[in-house]
Structures are given as structure tokens and as C-alpha cells.
Amino acid sequence: MFDDLRDLYQEVIFDHNRNPRNFHVMEDADRKVEGFNPLCGDRLTLYLKMDGDKITDASFQGSGCAISTASVSLMTEIVKGKTEAEAEELFKQFHEMTTGKEEEVNLEAIGKLAVLAGVREYPARVKCATLAWHTLDAALKNEQESISTE
Amino acid sequence: MTTFPIEKIRADFPILQEKIRNKPLVYLDNAASCQKPQQVIDSIVHCYSHEYANVHRGVHTLSVKATDRYEGAREKVKDFINAQSTKEIIFVRGATEAINLIAQTFGKTNIKAGDEILITAMEHHSNIVPWQMLCAETGAVLKVAPINLQGELIYAEFEKLITDKTKLIAVVHMSNALGTINPVEKIIAAAKAKNIPVLLDGAQAIPHMSVDVQALDCDFYVFSGHKLYAPSGIGVLYGKQSLLEAMPPYQGGGDMIRKVTFEETEYNVLPYKFEAGTPNIADVIGLGAAIDYLNDIGMDNIAAYEAELLDYATEKAKQIKGLRLIGEAQEKGAILSFVLDKIHPHDIGTMLDSLGIAIRAGHHCAMPVMDFFEVPATARASFAMYNTKEEIDVLMQGIESLIEIFG
């Protein structure tokens, strides 16, 4: 019945929505930033544990749609062990994949995140996928206040 | 309801023939904005093609014609809501502008520090924020009457909040997020007993029921054209003449003046005092055409047909496991707000869209209502006179399928 939506709602997304990874409060986090999408009411809190400029652990709490939950869940997996610069580069690639030109995306670098490429065709849903990354960006820049996609 | 001319009505709305993602459009986002019948579209095309010029100015034929049509539409609005006089019908951009106008003119003149403005917990942001702004400027206090878990105003609490300090009661006639129809007769009677003016936000109510401002005895009634099958960008502020006379103008400019010198300006009479600048001529004429269209069908017939649709949809929705209705008031208009267990409204919206079904997913510009029900957002199917039970079946099948796919 939802054949048209297979590109957007891939099985991996359903899986991460049902069982989000790293879904817990991190008591000893070095960075904690809240992300908010006022359009749909999605809210998330992102926690990072840092060792110098390296992200050693990431987790989140919050509620959102399947796209936003899967995006933040996948993100917390992929950024673990990355340096700030590597994470920022991933954000750039992710942003390119969801909003920019397809041919400029480094598919190898983006890895598993490619399951979210489908949002490109759904402009109203791009913000759902990018909220996690905007929040990470704010956390890496050490902005402690809550950030918003608007 | 065998007499309701549903097929003829559907044929009048060209957009209903559109295919969305290769499926027939099922348009259930009417509370956000309604579609327009050919008659309204034609009236605008006719205006620009044959009868357009500025109004209230020229002696030339076209200006006279345009003025006749423009003022003719005002007459239609007056009759539609049974106002006493066309002087009480002010054209504005929409309900939002109407409320801001009242806050900035009536409010600033009559509401002082320590005074109270009473609203309800189910208001649209447009009937919250203008009052917050006024309170910030004047030192007045905004009081909010609570609602219960059915989404109904708790009237006893509301009544307790009416005090000697209350200078205005501003209440939504029908809630856009919940569908609740407020007991406005009771509210107005209680307000009158204390000489407190009442503003009704009719943006959501106006397409669903007949409204008689004299029978209601409200002081202000506001609505938008675009929810009444008329163009966007046009709306109506009804105010009792005595109140409007006493209010200062909202904006200065052409048309709202009688005499201007550099020393002083004499304002025009009602309703022009509140219509500075060239108005939205063609869309006012479109609003007139929409009212003609609705009068032909009859608002009471529309209300009866929509009540049947809502009952049908409610009954079907209640059979779906994991679906929770948000707003189950006894008195309710054709709005079905709901959430699904573990499925976010935005996912519901995208999934239904792929089936050609347009619903709203979000906070419906009523964030306090979402907070009260402890949901970030709801999915909302809102019905209009052109919707059918078959479309409701398509919606319900869609919901069942997406529940299945989300597992």
C-alpha cells in the first residue's frame, strides 16, 4: 500500500524507530544540548562524552517522528570515536545528501546514513532528519543553549 | 441526508479532481484552509477581466462598478451573519488581523494596568498572542479558563474567572485543534450580566454553522474568508456599531479619512474608518460569491451533513486499536484530532499523503492545547461539506495500514 514510500521509510528506519540505539541519559556527559523542531514539536537532548577533540560516547533522549528518531539514533552510532573535525565533515556530507546535489555526496563516508537519503524528495521532512545533526553541531561548538531548526 | 447535493457540490470544486501522488485527492485539511468552488474562482476572474478599478474614488464607470460589487459583498456578509448594519462589517486580512485590530484599538483604549482579559485554554495562538502583547504594553493580566480531558471548557471555572477587573472576554467559537464548540450563549449571558464585552473567534465555526451575531449578542465576531470557501487574504471583523464608533482608527492612510490638512485629520465614518488604503477588492468580491454559494446550499443543511460525517468518522476511528481521539466534546464540529500509539503525527501525515490523503500533522497553532494533552502534536482530519463517507473509509483504511507497517 505504501510502495511510493519505500525510499523514505526503509526497514532500517523502522528498526531504529522501534529500538533506538544509545537512547539514555548520560549522567557524566561533557556536552549536553537540546534540539527542538517547533514545526512538529520534536525535541531531543543530545549527550556527548569527549576526550580532547574526540567523541568517545554519544547518547540521546527525546521524542520525535520515525525519521528524526532514526536519524539521531544512527548519528550517535556513527560519531562515536570520531574527532570533532570528522563529525563536522559528516554533518556536511549529510546535509549535502538531504538537501544538495546527489553527485557531490561521498557515499563511502556517509555509510549507513545513506538510508536517510530519501528525505530529499520530501522537503517537508528534511528538518526531521537534520535536527540531530544541527544539535550535534551546536554541541561541538559548545553552545549549551537549546537550538532550533527554525 | 438524501437531499444533500453532494455530487453537485463536488463537481463545483475543480481541485477535487486533482491526483496527488497518482491517487485521487482526499482533502481533509479543511480546518487549515478550504478549497474554492468554481463560482468563487469565476467571480475573481470576472472582476479582473471586466469590472476592476479602485473603489470609492473614481467617477468613471469601472470604479463605480467595482465599488458596487465591493459594497455589495459587504451587504452579503452583513446578511450572512445578521449584523444590523454594513457599518459593522470591516474587511481585514483575516481573523488574526481582526483580533490584532481589536487589541490595538479597543484594547489600548479600554484596558489598563491591573485589568483582566479572559480567554480559554483551547485558543488558537491568534487569540492568545495579541492579548499577551497588549498585556505587556499595558500591565493588564491574561486569565485562562481551563478545559477538561474531553476538550471542553470547564464552565464553572470559567465563570469564577469573571471578576470586576475583567474588561474583555475573548473566546473561540469552535476550536481548531479539538473541534469543541463552546457554550457561547451561556458565556455571553454571563458577560452581559457584568457589562463585559465579548469577542468570538469564529474562524473555525463560520463554515460549519449559521451564525447570527444579533441573536448571540456578541460584541465582536471575527473570521477569515479562506476557511469559508473564499479566497485567502480576506477576513471580516464584525463589531457593534457603538463600540466601533468609540474606537480609534487602526491604521492611517487613504480611504479612512474625511478631511486632511497638515494641522489635523478628520476620520471617515464606519466602516471606512478601519479600512485604510486600497482594500483587497477582488477577494472581497470572491467572499461575496462564496456566501452566495453557501446560501444556495443552506448553512443548516451543511451543518446536518457534516454532523453525519463526523459521527461516521468518530465511530470508525474508535474501532481502530491504538488510536486515541484528542477532543471528545459533546458539542463538536467536523474535526477529528487523534494520535496513534508509538507513531508520530508527522509520519502519519507523510504516509497518508502517499495515498492522496491530505491531513494536518502538528500543533495546529495551539501549543498550549498540545501541552495539556501531553502530546507533541496530533494528526487532524477536518471535514468540509464536499467530503464523503467513502473518503472517510479511505482515511481509515490508510490509518490501519500504516499501523500495520509500523508494527
Low-confidence regions of chain B: none
- The tally of beta strands of chain B, per DSSP, is 17
- Please give the domain count of chain B: 2
How is the largest sheet of chain A built, in terms of strand order?
A: 3-2-1-4
User: C-alpha Rg of chain B, in Å?
Assistant: 22 Å
**Oligomeric state of the chains in view:** heterodimer
* Contiguous uncertain segments of 5+ residues of chain A: none
Structural class of chain A: alpha+beta
State the CATH superfamily name of the largest domain in chain B: Type I PLP-dependent aspartate aminotransferase-like (Major domain)
Number of strands of chain A: 4
CATH class of chain A: Alpha Beta
Share in helix of chain A? 25-40%
Strand fraction band of chain A? 15-25%
Instruction: Report the structural category of chain B.
Output: alpha/beta
CATH T-level fold name of the largest domain in chain B: Aspartate Aminotransferase, domain 2
Indicate the mean pLDDT of chain A: 89
CATH architecture of chain A: Alpha-Beta Complex
Explain briefly what this protein structure is.
Chain A is of the alpha+beta class and 150 residues long.
Features:
heterodimer; A: 150 residues; alpha+beta; Sufe protein. Chain: A; 38% helix; globular; B: 407 residues; alpha/beta; Aspartate Aminotransferase, domain 1; Aspartate Aminotransferase, domain 2; 4-stranded antiparallel beta sheet; 14 helices; 17 strands; 16% strand
What does this structure look like?
The complex is a heterodimer of chains A (150) and B (407). In chain A, 38% of the residues lie in helices and 19% in strands. With 150 residues, chain A is an alpha+beta fold. Chain A has a four-stranded mixed β-sheet, covered by helices on one side. In chain A, a hairpin with a 4-residue loop joins β1 and β2. In chain A, α1 (11-18) crosses α2 and α2 (66-79) runs parallel beside α5. The mean pLDDT of chain A is 89. Chain B has 407 residues and is of the alpha/beta class. In chain B, α2 runs antiparallel to α10, α3 packs across α10 and α11 (299-318) packs parallel to α14. The longest helix of chain B is centred in the first third of the chain and has 20 residues, at 61-80. Chain A binds chain B through residues 1-2, 4-5, 8-9, 14, 17-18, 39-43, 63-69, 122, 124-125, 128, and chain B through 21-22, 343-347, 350-351, 354-355, 361-363, 370, 376-377, 398, 401-402, 405-407.
